[in-house]
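Hey all, quick one. A colleague (J.T.) asked me to put the pyridoxal-5'-phosphate job into the tracker so the inputs and the structure tokens live in one place instead of scattered across chat threads. No bug as far as I know, just bookkeeping. Sequence used:
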Amino acid sequence: MNRASRTPAGGPAPAAAAAPAPRPFDPRRVRAEFPILARAVRGKPLVYLDNAATTQKPVAVLEALDGFYRAHNANIHRAVHTLSQEATLAFDAARETVRRFLNAADAREVIFTRGTTEGINLVAQAWGRANLRAGDEVLLTTMEHHSNIVPWQLVAAERGAVVRVVPIDDAGTLDLDAFHRLLGPRTRLVAVGHVSNALGTVNPVADLARAAHAAGALVLVDGAQAVAHARVDVRALDADFYAFSGHKVFGPTGIGALYGKRALLEAMPPWQGGGDMIRTVSFAGSTWADLPSKFEAGTPDVAGAVGLGAALAWFSALPFDAVAAHEADLLAHGTEVLSRVPGLRLVGTSPHKASVLSFTLDGVHPHDIGTLLDLEGVAVRTGHHCAQPVMERYGVPATARASLALYNLRDDLDALVAALAKVRALFPL
Ligand code: PLP
């Protein structure tokens, strides 16, 4: 939402988001836009390295949320009064911002969801139940997040379809030979993560989509971990579906989007019924609204959508190449300094990698690592990262994971390593 829309009650209605103006990238200045990063944890400056779980929010997003509730809050699409019209405009503007962010051809191809999980479940339930037949195959990879595994297991069990899995090598790179072997005439859908949350591996989704389409299959991309790190262009990728969560790209929790090619979405039945998704309702039967409403039953998270629009506008205004170079430097620096910690093993060392440093430390359970790091103000994630097949592949119950965002600095990684030295001192090799 723009500055004008943050005026007190009675201010102008939110305008459709304008094309973002490029601005220089200085990680320290960008960091200062995130109030939470200035707080202390356990008496130490916060070192936030859990960005794959959720990113922090810049002032632009906090103000957009606050401004919406202070000045424009109303339900959308349902009333002629001014607030409802303003809220509807703001909601529609957010959809247009998502469209532009993904480079989708048409805003009707953008469905607001609660996040990646809901987007994938939508496709599994609406497309999968209508299209999968006994013996059809859905091709996944070992490195998928549970939210890109379980929805397919549920619909496959119901439809008699089969889930197949493309393995990964020791570095965490997808085995492309196996992918081509497994892709066959029975494959109806390839569902693959753009970037792995447990390993950081970046998958060649455009190549996978080309091969899948040649085999007559559709492609769903789980973009949860890509949106804050890669330039996403659903048309260049030729993804049939692309799901992401707002909270992983500097936006609020509870909102995300699913992109789907228009013809596919139009052919799919709705998956949830309720207000706003219908054209007519009678006890003899009901008919459905056009896209995108057909897939947005009930009151949506209007403020969340506005916050997501603000996040994407904020992020898109940064020079992407400079951000990418900064993140590449952080990843290289983190890899180097962590590799020097005695007994530390990095899990996920693909040459095609982004923003994730998963590791184990000999003789220390990952949960102990997490707890001890927290005492130093360092926030990392420990556990299976909702990717139990990855843990199984590497024969570990869990890892500790430092994950990066554009506001991190080399100092954060140095603080992590200093804190790990204290852990090592408590658990000598
Ligand atoms: N896919 C990947 C790769 C993820 O990392 C995550 C969250 O960590 C998800 C899907 C699920 O995202 P959400 O919980 O926001 O729906």
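Adding what we noticed when we looked at it: The chain has a mean pLDDT of 95. The two ends are 53 Å apart (CA to CA).
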